[in-house]
Amino acid sequence: MYIWLIGLHVAAVTVWIAGLSVAAILISALDPATAAEEGPSRILRAALRWDRRVTSPAMGLAWILGPTLVVVGGWGFEPWLVAKVAIVIALSALHGKLAAGLRRLAEQDPASGVRPVSPLLRFSPLAVIAGVIAIVTLVVVKPY
User: Which of 11, 77, 121, 130 minimizes the number of CB atoms within 10 Å of its CB?
Assistant: First the structure.
């Protein structure tokens, strides 16, 4: 049963990170001034629907299965696992910021002139890549 839990966890994480990457790329690529136009707005609304229906549930499933694997596998509080959880918490927070950014960009009033998304989110694709590389390295190498 443990191997099935691992497989389901990896599948959920893969779907979550794929959706997270799409949101990060969209927010970093779209100009907030033109995001309310018909073409970009349709893409943003579709990405927001995908996030609500697929990406967020996949993240939730990954969060349920992760601690389950720790308990069933008897991992305990090993340093590499604590570091991994810290990175996963950061990626989860980034997911929340990106989902909010997608929503604000999709629903913004073009006449308001308000910049709806933090300029720092332009670097979110790099944060996702760095986080995933760090997690995979920690899980495979278990350096400490």
Answer: 77
- Rounded to two decimals, the pTM is 0.90
Residues listed for the chain: 144
Reported as a single tens digit per residue, the pLDDT across 85-144 is: 999 999 999 999 999 998 888 877 656 655 678 889 999 999 999 999 999 999 999 988
Distance between CA atoms of 118 and 27, rounded to whole angstroms?
10
Instruction: Give Cα 129 distance to the centre of its chain.
Output: 10
- Determine how many CB atoms are found less than 10 A away from the CB of residue 128: 20
Displacement of CA 71 from its chain's centroid (Å): 24
Among 91, 96, 97, residue whose Cα is nearest residue 129? 91
Tens digit of pLDDT for each residue in 14-34? 999 999 999 999 999 887 777
> What are 120-127's contacts with CB under 8 Å, separation 24+?
121/24, 121/27, 121/28, 121/97, 122/27, 122/28, 123/28, 124/23, 124/24, 124/27, 124/28, 124/94, 124/97, 124/98, 125/21, 125/24, 125/25, 125/28, 127/24, 127/90, 127/91, 127/94
Cβ atoms within 10 Å of 138's Cβ, excluding its own: 20
